[in-house]
Amino acid sequence: MASLVQPMLADLAYWQETVLRGLVGLVAVLLPTGALVYLFLYKMMSFMQSRLGPMEAGPFGQLQLLADFGKFLQKEDIFPAKADRFVFGAAPFVVLVSTFLLVLALPAGPDAHFIDVNTGIYYALAVSSISVIGTLMAGWGSNSKYSLLGGLRAAAQLIAYELPLVLSVVGVVIMAGTLNMKGIVEAQNSFGVWFIVPQFVGFLIFLVSIQAELTQPPFDMPQAESELVTGYLTEYSGMRFLLFFIGEFATAAVFSAIGATLFLGGWAIPFVDPSAEFMNWIGPLVLAAKMVLIAFFIFWFRITYPRFREDQLQKLAWKFLIPLALANIVVTASIKVAIDL
Amino acid sequence: MADITADLDITNEAQLRYIASQAVDARVNIELETDGMTLNIGPQHPATHGTLRIVAKLDGEQVIRSEPIMGYMHRGYEKLSEVRTYPQVTTLINRIDWVGSFANEVPFILAAEDLMEVEAPPRAQWIRTALFELGRIANIMLFLGDMAVQLGGSTAVFYAFRDREFVLNQIEAATGGRFHPNFNRIGGVKDDLPAGWVGETKSAMQSVRDFCDEMEDLVLGNEIFQLRCRGVGVIPADIGMAYGLSGANIRASGVDWDLRRDAESPLAWSELDWKVWTHPDGDSFSRYWVRLQETREATYMVEQLLDGLPAGPIMAKVPRIIKVPAGESYVQTENPLGSMGYYVVSKGELTPFRVKIRTASFSNISITPWLLEGVLVPDIATILASLYFILGDVDR
Amino acid sequence: MPQLPGMLVGLGVTARAFYRTVFPDGPLGPPSPSKGAHTVQYPHVKEAPPTRARGVIALHEDNCTACMLCARECPDWCIYIEGHKELAPPRRAGGKPRQKNKLDRFDIDFALCMFCGICVEVCPFDALFWSPEFEFSELKIADMLHDKSRLGDWMETVPEFGPYEGGSEQKVRKVPAT
User: Fold this and answer.
1) How far apart are CA C52 and CA B11, in angstroms?
2) Which residues, in sequence order, are bridge partners of residue C79?
3) C86 shares a domain with C30
4) pLDDT at B166 (0 to 100)
5) Nearest to C39 among A48, A51, A305 (CB)
6) Are B111 and B10 members of one domain?
7) Using N-to-C axis directions, what is the helix angle for B102-116 and B122-150, rounded to 10°?
8) Which of B111, B6, B178, B172 has the alpha carbon at shortest distance from B355?
9) Do residues C82 and C72 make contact, with C-beta atoms less than 8 angstroms apart?
């Protein structure tokens, strides 16, 4: 990418380069989102439930998301009567901002990245917490009891599961020796085997934590449809609802990609040098494939399991996942120091 | 309207006005005090199977008091029956518990036959029992899928509806209607079974059994489901009996009572080899478990019925224009939702004088205030789903 | 062998449903979810309802004598009948002219109809029949009132009465030729 694209980029003015980056960022977020929604939500969920899913819009329903987009665009933008207009209106954008910030730090090749953040994974986890604020804003700003209950539940759950998420990643960081995500990919390459093998426990904790961070079943108490209608999303309609929806799936895509980077070797293919030039073109495809694999598991769990109750959820996080993650860290660190990997 | 705030010892005017704006029913206004949050669950809500409204006073996530408000679906069946002839009433009462529909007609027809002192021939009784059990299977399959979806496992309900189609197709092949068979007549059934029905129904029963196994794997065996349901909504046997619970709700509390076995009935249950399933726990899990076992048991009963179907006529000799002689009769049967009874008073005319319908769900949800005290909001959905009421059955 | 935790068994159930939907012909066949899923893609594919399905009521006008039994017994009173008496020529020469009822109007309002079948059952002259046709939805509710000619057209869709199960003593009725 560097040798081909650099000369082209050098001719652009700063504002043109910014626009280009913005567009590429938009595509980088929306394309995986659309793919995930179609593949897993529309098709895999339907097949697991012995039905077909959308089939009318486009061949095999491939244009259904476009049709849904059009439908949501032309709906009335409803503000509940006593809602706090600013808080209510800004909430979906806050959630989306967190997703876009996450994508910035995700490398898809040796030079295919937006920013090369040296504290890559730390920045990513920190920035993903911004969506909690958006959820709370949605719950509070709706001025509805159902939304408030949903927003409070969401905040409690998201904050509780931040810790296992971070701790599960620490094992990987210890083994790689760096927070930089490119460094982690290269460390997996030099270690010989992807970190999912030595860090299997960490991987499982990571999977469970991102399921909870995405408020997907079995952790979807905040949107428990049968009790709270849609929880903090109850009062949203039209484009704002679609923004939340996109945010949920985009975050799922990005978290899966982060999981693929940390545990499955990122853009690297075995027996191929990850810093080679052509990996800039193949890397994004490889990363996308691995992202789809992890997202498959996320959605498979979503389709199969009923939801936890709020206190059971919290108990699982605080009393089970965090001690397990801490134990994982201790064992990893001890082995690393003892054998000096 | 009298000043509802006259006797209350509350000074905050704004709070009172807010409460008054929340609840339509003034009586509810007085009974629920001012602190805590009053939440209206329903009447439009995915958790209530229809238009049930539960006013719950919450303290955070815990319910302090709750009250079910029914009547949003009242259609006036008992009044309508006073001006409809017996076949017309049979048509109407199909729609009370619309999922296990054939079962609604049976106690009414049995009560009318009791007054007329007419007995349906054995073939008709066996066909009635077979369709009754098919209605039970259709009804409880919906429950098995629906309780899982109330708890968040959305896949189970698709399997339930997919496999229910086989049963509904069989009911339609015999009676012409999937949901409203309208097949009972005083003196027997309307028509005989079409050729091939026995073989098709037996294969449908095998599909239902496969579905029951799937539900055991997907739902009953799931640790999350067990965490959500075990110990939640425990109904002790004596409290359940005091509130008039019936059907699987009371059998799951350990009470061995089933009208199919314990009450005298001209239908063919006494000639079959089957067992009554009970569970000692009385929580939501046991209610699901008992209903799952009952569905399987019902499939075996249907197969026995079809194997032993006696030959003969399907209608006794009754006059063309049916005038039921004067008298009163009460017949109760073990419907899918519980025990349903019809008290028919006749004055010797074309129409009944009075039909009082005792429905299972009305008594089943009367336990809701007692049961929901002190539970968390998520458990409200679990408990309501496990009690399993159909609003048509509650409100008639 | 230790029992698998229930969570994993549940995953197996959904995976099996997925496999059965996508590969209905086994692992060697081509993936064809349209065949494996239980969805019938109406209106491209139409399922035939059973023969006895109560779809719509057809009228065989020749048999009807405007006795009004069906209109009386209907729980919704959705059948509207008007008729007049006519004199038909005598059967033999020199006999009395016969009085016949002639139908002027026979409408069934399917917007009110409960599809209960009481009218079909009480008709003493076998003039009403069930047909499994169900695709007659209209844009205007007034069009749901089917008049005499339309009810007569439905007679073409009435299937023959099928045989009964073994052990039955019922006689199979005949649908009159239109």
Assistant:
1) 68
2) C108
3) no
4) 92
5) A51
6) no
7) 150
8) B111
9) no
Whether residue B275 contacts residue B226, with contact meaning beta carbons closer than 8 Å, is answered with no
| CA dihedral angle for residue A16, residue A19, residue A23, residue A26, rounded to 10 degrees | 160
Same domain? B31 vs B81: no
- Sort strands C56-59 and C128-131 into parallel, antiparallel or unpaired: antiparallel
Report how many domains make up chain A.
Answer: 1
- pLDDT score for A204: 92
What is the enclosing helix (H) or strand (E) of A67?
helix A64-73
- DSSP codes joined into one string, B103-133: HHHHHHHHHHHHHHT----HHHHHHHHHHHH
B376 touches chain A (CB under 8 A): yes
Neighbours of B243 (CB within 10 A): 20
Of B345, B370, B363, B347, nearest to B355 (Cα)?
A: B345
B314 CB neighbours in chain C (<8 A) are 168-170
What pLDDT score does B207 carry?
A: 92
Number of domains in chain C: 2
**Which has the closest alpha carbon to C110: C82, C83, C76?**
C76
CB spacing of B159 vs A145 below 8 angstroms: no
Q: Which domain holds residue B18?
A: 1-35
Q: Which of B176, B217, B311 sits opposite C10 (nearest CB)?
A: B217
Interface of B with A in 159-178 (CB under 8 A): 159, 162
pLDDT in tens, B187-237: 889 888 998 899 999 999 999 999 999 999 888 888 888 888 888 889 999
**C16 plus C65 within the same structural domain:** no
Q: Are B208 and B164 in contact (CB under 8 A)?
A: no
Say how far apart CA A241 and CA C154 lie, in whole Å: 48
Which conformational region is residue A75 in: left (phi greater than 0), alpha (psi within -120 to 50 degrees), or beta? beta
Chain A contact partners (≥3 CB pairs within 8 A): B, C
CB contact under 8 Å between B217 and C12, yes or no, is yes
The verdict on C129 and C69 lying in the same domain is yes
Q: ipTM value, please give it.
A: 0.86
**Structure confidence by residue, pLDDT tens digits, A50-79:** 888 888 887 887 888 888 888 888 988 888
Chain B residues inside the 8 Å CB shell of A309: 227-228, 376, 378-379
Predicted TM-score of the model (pTM): 0.86
Q: Do B165 and B17 belong to one domain?
A: no
Within 13 Å, how many C-alpha atoms sit on residue C103's CB side? 21
CB B97, CB B390: distance < 8 Å? yes
Kindly report, residue by residue over B331-367, the tens digit of the pLDDT. 999 999 999 999 999 998 889 999 999 999 999 888 9
Give the domain extent around C4: 1-46
Residue % of chain B over a pLDDT of 90: 34
Alpha-carbon gap, residue B394 to B97, rounded angstroms:
9
Q: Which residue has the higher pLDDT, B235 or A191?
A: B235
Closest-CA residue to A265 (of A177, A186, A150) = A186
Instruction: Determine the pLDDT at residue B299.
Output: 93
